[in-house]
Fold this sequence. Notes:
Blueprint lengths: L5 H7 L3 E3 L2 E3 L1 H31 L4 H21 L5 H16 L1 H4 L5 H20 L4 H22 L1
Antiparallel strand pairs: 1-2
Helix pairs in contact: 3-4, 4-6, 6-7
Amino acid sequence: MAFMPRILRGVAAGACYAWPFPIANHEVSMRAALLIVLGLVIGILGTVQVMNVLGERNPLPKAVMHVMAYHAGELKHAMKAQRCDAQSTRPHLLALQAMSSDIRPAFAGADPALFQIADKLHRAADAAVQAAPADCPALDAALKPVGEACQSCHQQYR
């Protein structure tokens, strides 16, 4: 053993060296534990990011809801501004009707009770379009069943 260099003698004797200074065994185990914890944290953060991306892979349900909210909001603004003529409200009512028919394909595989509420919403939107409200009280009356259908769904599934 006398002919071995100092670094190799320490390794042969069970000590750990980081050139040119020796490291105690407890420092090595602390360093390994720190690296394991750091690896776990990085792994958890990466998993969270991947799960977020996978959760956002189908934007259609959210898009349908955003478009419906936009048109419902425009109709509410028209009522507040007392501009409820049929010519300005009809496009928004038609859009609500069209979007209500897109709920079933957007939420394919969802709870069947959701589709019953979606059908109720579609019937209410059809009735609102057929009513062709020409003033604000008529528009309010036509939108009341639509709002109730939206509210019942959002209470249960939001």
